[in-house]
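Batch job 17 of 40 flagged for manual review because the log was empty.
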Amino acid sequence: MVAIRNHEKLRDWLDNKPVDWARAMALRSALRVLPFAVRSDRPALHIAVFRATAISWSARKFPDQDIA
């Protein structure tokens, strides 16, 4: 198991991996936050987490599309 504790180490680790790994990690990260966000009483947080999940899912599902 790799211990990654900051942004730079994650970037260095992902440099040698296929781009799909970064997309999969983005989606998994957004999905892990989702249960905590749903339990909160902050609608802005719900929208932000839903947006992050939707964008990371679509980037993973449709990698050839420019979603910017």
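Reviewer: the log was empty due to a logging misconfiguration, but the result itself is present. The chain has a mean pLDDT of 85. Unflagging and moving on to job 18.
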